[in-house]
């Protein structure tokens, strides 16, 4: 995957994770944890995309 693809998927995962956390609130700790994990995954994907951009997609 390229830099922009990784960044786009990362943004999507972050957004979905944030929505899950907001919907879960304190009533559904499992969904909140799932949302936090997905948000973290999205952040990592964005970093991966940034690294690919810096290295010219050779990663």
Structure description:
The chain is mainly α and 59 residues long. It is built from 2 helices and no strands. Helix 1 (3-24) packs antiparallel against helix 2. The longest helix is centred in the last third of the chain and has 27 residues, at 29-55. It is elongated.
Q: Give the helices and strands as they follow along the chain.
A: HH
Average pLDDT works out at 91
| Share of helix, binned | over 70%
Gap from first CA to last CA: 9 Å
Number of β-strand runs: 0
**Describe the biggest sheet?**
none
SS content category: mainly alpha
Could you give the topology of this structure?
Layout: H1 3-24, H2 29-55
Helix pairs in contact: 1-2
Compact description:
The protein has two helices and no strands. The protein is mainly α.
Which descriptors apply to this entry?
59 residues, elongated, mainly alpha
